[in-house]
Amino acid sequence: MExxxxxxxxxxxxxxxxDTDNNEQKFKNLVLNAIVNILNSNIQSNDLETYLLKxxxxxxxxxxxxxxSRLLPSLSIFGETINPNDSLIYSKIRDESxxxxxxxxxxxxxxxxxxIISNKDKKLLYDNFKEAIELSNVxxxxxxxxxxxxxxxxxxxxxxxxxxxxxxxNDVAVxxxxxxxxxxxxxxxxxxxxxxxxxxxxxxxxxxxxxxxxKQILNxxxxxxxxxxxxxxxxxxxxxxxxxRNMYRELLVQYTCYQNxxxxxxxxxxxxxxxxxxxxxxxxxxxxxVLDEAK
Length: 295
What we know:
The protein is mainly alpha-helical. The chain has helices at 2-14, 23-39, 45-55, 88-95, 99-111, 119-136, 162-175, 180-194, 199-218, 228-237, 242-264, 271-293; strands at 75-77, 80-82, 140-146, 152-158. A hairpin with a 5-residue loop joins β3 (140-146) and β4. α2 runs antiparallel to α6 (119-136).
């Protein structure tokens, strides 16, 4: 994939090609093509559209507008030939101007029961959507993680710096499989961020994620505040430098103070602060996991 992207970039430079296309539109075109290819032979449209109708309009009650087009080949489903533009998911993604809604529709596909879309086909969708992200350079990420029952979960979330996402969000989401309660809250926070969910509830998920994780590491039932000093001793036993130990504890104390102000006293939280909390939570966890695995 990276090799192809580099070749395209080199070609554009050689021929002085100026890319003026909208990245979000590129992404939509790529995912629509992927959906059509999978719909063509794998998805039972009646079950899928019933599922989509149930959840697609929870926060959007506008009627469906289907436009005519002959750009794509017809599909054969249940012995009937239909235009792919007649399918609910195709028409909604094509006509949707709100990009976050487009991602929500794609997330619904990946959330669907395997009786509607098989696990094999969801993996195909995941691979194609991930490729579309890379080729279009949209500001989102798609992650595949296993839950405690070894079931695959595919999660969209807004991206920050790619290096941070790979080292913190992606790695932590995978590593937390040994800490299922904590992983559940981390994934819940990512889903809320992706769907522009309630910020206060998202902050609470992040706090619970960290609290449950540290409880399991220390094998106790104390609150996050009461574990601040205990984690200091744990870090000392791992031969962590005294300044890093004190920094970790101080950040943890300030983290809990902020959480209390925002979740218990209804203080306003800005999205940029929420993004910082996401990375900070992941960094708290990653540091401990790396130290714990080093044994």
